[in-house]
Amino acid sequence: MNNHDPNEIPLGAQVPQEEGSNQNAQPQWVDDLEQTLILGKQFSKFAVDLMDLAGAEMLLAVKSFPKLIMLWLLMMPIILLSWCAFSGLIAWLVFALSAHTGLSLFAVFLLQILLLISCRWLFFQYRKRMTLPYTRNQIASFVRSINNEFNDRNSTEK
Asked: pTM, whole model, 2 decimals?
């Protein structure tokens, strides 16, 4: 006796589908079009956000510019005025404590160098703000993400 039905489909075999059963599947170009539209929406949101960020950084740069100019203009007089005001006092104090003239002059020199380093640090901080670092980072990040997306898409198609 053979219990095998000729119309029975063996376990694990693919079932043939009827012609009308593939109506839910979309063509590839429709998926590509949807992804392109999504990318366009993301790009427009990115562009708006980037303009907001650039505007905020430009405002910060514009507000930092007068401070930068003022600091630059004050650096030279600060060095000269501090030398004149503190050199006699510091030299006298160090000389009174150590009785060495060279040591007292060296202490005054170190004080002026410290003041100059402080002013230079502030100068570089204000100048750095004027280069819009966050906007440039945002643009670079966006370009990297687009490149990665295209690279991933190309690698999955192959």
From this structure: 0.40
